[in-house]
Amino acid sequence: MTQGKPDPIRPTDDEARVLARSLLDNARFAALGVLDPDTGAPMVTRIALARGPDGAPLTLISDLSAHTRALRADPRASLLVGEPGPRGDPLTHPRLTLQGRVAFVDRAGPDHGGLRRTYLDQNPKAQLYIDFADFTLVRLDIAEAHLNGGFGKAYRLTAADLS
Description:
Elements: E1 9-10, H1 14-26, E2 29-35, E3 42-48, E4 50-51, E5 57-62, H2 66-73, E6 76-81, E7 95-104, H3 112-122, E8 135-148, E9 154-158, H4 159-162
Protein backbone atom coordinates (compact mmCIF):
# COMPACT_ATOMS: atom_id res chain seq x y z
CA MET A 1 0.00 0.00 0.00
CA THR A 2 1.15 3.49 -0.85
CA GLN A 3 -0.40 6.16 1.41
CA GLY A 4 -3.65 4.22 1.75
CA LYS A 5 -3.74 3.08 -1.87
CA PRO A 6 -3.19 -0.51 -2.95
CA ASP A 7 0.20 -1.25 -4.52
CA PRO A 8 -0.29 -1.22 -8.31
CA ILE A 9 2.69 -3.54 -8.82
CA ARG A 10 1.61 -7.14 -9.36
CA PRO A 11 3.53 -10.10 -7.96
CA THR A 12 6.03 -11.29 -10.55
CA ASP A 13 4.86 -14.51 -12.18
CA ASP A 14 6.03 -16.76 -15.01
CA GLU A 15 3.92 -14.90 -17.56
CA ALA A 16 5.67 -11.63 -16.66
CA ARG A 17 9.09 -13.30 -16.82
CA VAL A 18 8.37 -14.77 -20.27
CA LEU A 19 7.13 -11.43 -21.60
CA ALA A 20 10.14 -9.55 -20.19
CA ARG A 21 12.60 -12.07 -21.65
CA SER A 22 10.83 -11.91 -25.01
CA LEU A 23 11.06 -8.10 -25.09
CA LEU A 24 14.76 -8.27 -24.31
CA ASP A 25 15.47 -11.16 -26.70
CA ASN A 26 13.75 -9.40 -29.60
CA ALA A 27 15.16 -5.92 -29.02
CA ARG A 28 17.65 -4.79 -31.65
CA PHE A 29 17.82 -1.27 -30.30
CA ALA A 30 17.01 0.49 -27.03
CA ALA A 31 16.79 3.88 -25.40
CA LEU A 32 19.81 4.34 -23.12
CA GLY A 33 19.48 6.67 -20.14
CA VAL A 34 22.57 8.10 -18.46
CA LEU A 35 23.42 11.00 -16.15
CA ASP A 36 25.18 14.01 -17.65
CA PRO A 37 28.46 14.41 -15.71
CA ASP A 38 28.35 18.21 -15.91
CA THR A 39 24.78 18.80 -14.79
CA GLY A 40 23.58 15.50 -13.29
CA ALA A 41 20.55 15.74 -15.57
CA PRO A 42 19.23 12.61 -17.27
CA MET A 43 20.13 12.16 -20.91
CA VAL A 44 18.66 9.58 -23.30
CA THR A 45 19.92 8.27 -26.63
CA ARG A 46 19.14 5.38 -28.96
CA ILE A 47 21.62 2.49 -29.20
CA ALA A 48 21.90 -0.79 -31.09
CA LEU A 49 21.50 -3.76 -28.76
CA ALA A 50 22.53 -7.40 -28.56
CA ARG A 51 22.31 -10.03 -25.83
CA GLY A 52 25.55 -11.48 -24.59
CA PRO A 53 26.06 -15.22 -24.10
CA ASP A 54 25.01 -14.78 -20.47
CA GLY A 55 21.89 -12.84 -21.51
CA ALA A 56 23.21 -9.45 -20.43
CA PRO A 57 22.46 -6.52 -22.75
CA LEU A 58 25.45 -5.61 -24.89
CA THR A 59 26.06 -2.52 -27.01
CA LEU A 60 28.80 -0.76 -28.92
CA ILE A 61 29.44 2.91 -28.18
CA SER A 62 31.81 5.56 -29.48
CA ASP A 63 34.08 7.77 -27.40
CA LEU A 64 32.79 10.64 -29.55
CA SER A 65 29.33 10.29 -27.95
CA ALA A 66 28.15 12.28 -24.96
CA HIS A 67 26.64 9.13 -23.44
CA THR A 68 30.04 7.40 -23.45
CA ARG A 69 31.56 10.30 -21.54
CA ALA A 70 28.65 10.13 -19.10
CA LEU A 71 29.06 6.37 -18.56
CA ARG A 72 32.79 6.71 -17.95
CA ALA A 73 32.00 9.28 -15.24
CA ASP A 74 29.09 7.32 -13.73
CA PRO A 75 28.36 3.74 -14.87
CA ARG A 76 24.72 3.79 -13.71
CA ALA A 77 22.41 3.40 -16.68
CA SER A 78 18.95 2.45 -17.75
CA LEU A 79 17.65 0.80 -20.94
CA LEU A 80 14.13 0.86 -22.33
CA VAL A 81 13.11 -1.85 -24.81
CA GLY A 82 9.78 -2.61 -26.43
CA GLU A 83 8.20 -0.76 -29.30
CA PRO A 84 4.58 0.15 -29.85
CA GLY A 85 2.72 -1.92 -32.39
CA PRO A 86 1.32 -0.48 -35.60
CA ARG A 87 -2.10 0.15 -34.07
CA GLY A 88 -3.67 1.35 -30.90
CA ASP A 89 -2.47 3.47 -28.04
CA PRO A 90 1.34 3.17 -27.71
CA LEU A 91 0.97 3.06 -23.93
CA THR A 92 -0.93 -0.23 -24.08
CA HIS A 93 2.03 -2.07 -25.65
CA PRO A 94 4.51 -3.84 -23.35
CA ARG A 95 7.87 -2.33 -22.51
CA LEU A 96 10.72 -3.17 -20.18
CA THR A 97 13.01 -0.80 -18.30
CA LEU A 98 16.33 -2.19 -17.08
CA GLN A 99 18.50 -0.53 -14.45
CA GLY A 100 22.07 -1.33 -13.61
CA ARG A 101 25.70 -0.48 -14.19
CA VAL A 102 27.69 -0.75 -17.37
CA ALA A 103 31.03 -2.47 -17.68
CA PHE A 104 33.36 -1.49 -20.50
CA VAL A 105 34.81 -4.54 -22.24
CA ASP A 106 38.61 -4.34 -22.46
CA ARG A 107 39.80 -5.01 -26.04
CA ALA A 108 42.76 -6.92 -24.64
CA GLY A 109 40.63 -8.88 -22.18
CA PRO A 110 39.72 -12.56 -22.51
CA ASP A 111 36.01 -11.87 -23.13
CA HIS A 112 36.39 -9.36 -25.95
CA GLY A 113 36.66 -11.79 -28.87
CA GLY A 114 33.59 -13.78 -27.93
CA LEU A 115 31.50 -10.70 -27.14
CA ARG A 116 32.62 -9.09 -30.40
CA ARG A 117 31.40 -12.14 -32.35
CA THR A 118 28.13 -12.23 -30.41
CA TYR A 119 27.52 -8.55 -31.10
CA LEU A 120 28.29 -8.91 -34.81
CA ASP A 121 26.06 -12.00 -35.12
CA GLN A 122 23.16 -9.85 -33.96
CA ASN A 123 24.26 -6.57 -35.58
CA PRO A 124 26.18 -7.50 -38.76
CA LYS A 125 26.29 -3.95 -40.12
CA ALA A 126 28.50 -2.98 -37.17
CA GLN A 127 31.32 -4.85 -38.97
CA LEU A 128 31.98 -1.53 -40.72
CA TYR A 129 33.06 0.25 -37.52
CA ILE A 130 33.37 -2.19 -34.59
CA ASP A 131 37.18 -2.16 -34.82
CA PHE A 132 37.53 1.63 -34.98
CA ALA A 133 39.69 2.83 -32.10
CA ASP A 134 36.95 5.00 -30.60
CA PHE A 135 34.39 2.17 -30.31
CA THR A 136 34.01 0.04 -27.20
CA LEU A 137 31.72 -2.84 -26.31
CA VAL A 138 29.72 -2.26 -23.15
CA ARG A 139 27.54 -4.69 -21.19
CA LEU A 140 24.83 -3.80 -18.70
CA ASP A 141 24.89 -5.66 -15.41
CA ILE A 142 21.20 -5.62 -14.53
CA ALA A 143 20.27 -4.73 -10.96
CA GLU A 144 16.51 -4.66 -11.47
CA ALA A 145 13.86 -4.31 -14.12
CA HIS A 146 10.39 -2.84 -14.43
CA LEU A 147 7.91 -4.40 -16.83
CA ASN A 148 4.84 -2.61 -18.05
CA GLY A 149 2.97 -5.42 -19.76
CA GLY A 150 0.13 -3.18 -20.89
CA PHE A 151 -2.62 -1.34 -19.04
CA GLY A 152 -2.70 -2.37 -15.38
CA LYS A 153 0.12 -4.94 -15.73
CA ALA A 154 3.15 -3.58 -13.87
CA TYR A 155 5.87 -5.80 -12.39
CA ARG A 156 9.26 -5.50 -10.70
CA LEU A 157 11.79 -8.10 -11.82
CA THR A 158 15.25 -9.13 -10.75
CA ALA A 159 18.21 -9.99 -12.96
CA ALA A 160 17.46 -13.67 -12.22
CA ASP A 161 13.95 -13.23 -13.60
CA LEU A 162 15.47 -12.27 -16.95
CA SER A 163 18.04 -15.05 -17.28
